[in-house]
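queue> holo job accepted (threonylcarbamoyladenylate)
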Amino acid sequence: MNIEEAGRLIREGELVAFPTETVYGLGADATNERAVAKIFEAKGRPHFNPLISHVADTRAARQLVRWNDLAEKLAAHFWPGPLTLVLPKTDDSPLALLTTAGLDTAAIRAPDHPIAQALIRAADRPIAAPSANRSGGVSPTRADHVAQSLGDKVKLILDGGPCRVGLESTVLDLTSATPTLLRPGGATREAIEALIGPVALSEALPEGDAALKSPGQLASHYAPSRPLRLGATAVEADEALLAFGDRPPAGAVRTLNLSPAGDLTEAAANLFASLRALDRPEVACIAVMPIPETGLGLAINDRLRRAAADDGKHRRR
Ligand code: TXA
Ligand code: MG
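queue> job finished
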């Protein structure tokens, strides 16, 4: 693969899908309105949700947002990595209005992946990128997931193998008096609080709420087409089982174990690929075993609850 070529495509306003440590991103020049519009067109997003701008480092971030000591402390510890910071835009921020959906704040992160870093440097500008799936689908953690859902919409898919973290980044809003977790993700709440003290948790907001702060919070955002049943300790014969730990119940049509050892990091990395693999016509329902609500379990359970959210199309019989 040719990174220089990919960087040139970004500069020319084209879409390039690329790997990050969290999930694959659908990237475009974050300073180019038309290029960012192509992202929404390709994803089939119903609304212009604000996007994350990916930068190489804190020096690049400072040109886009009003940086402060708290941001510096967090970035020094977590960047490059799965923590996205929401900060006020600078007065002369080059970000396209569409990148931030017209907000005066912007979400920024430096991804921890050599291909993502090389692409940002080759493009020589911030890259706006949501997860590289059609709106409402499960986020891609492998290049072939991207090819399946967006293959005809992107100029180029850079293949970096499976994503190490497997869950999207944590989104932390630094524009309110207390830093607020808008989306749990790859950087754990515990690790953030160990560094900066207590953070507030924003409540999941109902779809369509005018006060919606982080549209990633839409109730059914990560839905596979089969219904999900959470907290399962037994399975029906027509169910698939998404297991966790060393004692999964027997009897499912198909069983995939997120982590036989009960390791939350391994479970996060396997989550989206496993949901895809179990989302099959012969499966009436995907039963999911309980996952502990600590560390990465917070983000895993958040994604599972969204995938299970009853939006009418998911009711079982
Ligand atoms: O891991 C990730 O974050 C992946 C990879 C590709 O970096 N990207 C990703 O992007 O998940 P997306 O667009 O699916 O999610 C961006 C999240 C959404 O929840 C969005 O609402 C929030 O960030 N966000 C973006 N800008 C914001 C802003 N100015 N204020 C509040 N939330 C914002
Ligand atoms: Mg997404």
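queue> Confidence is low (pLDDT under 50) at residues 205-213, 312-317.
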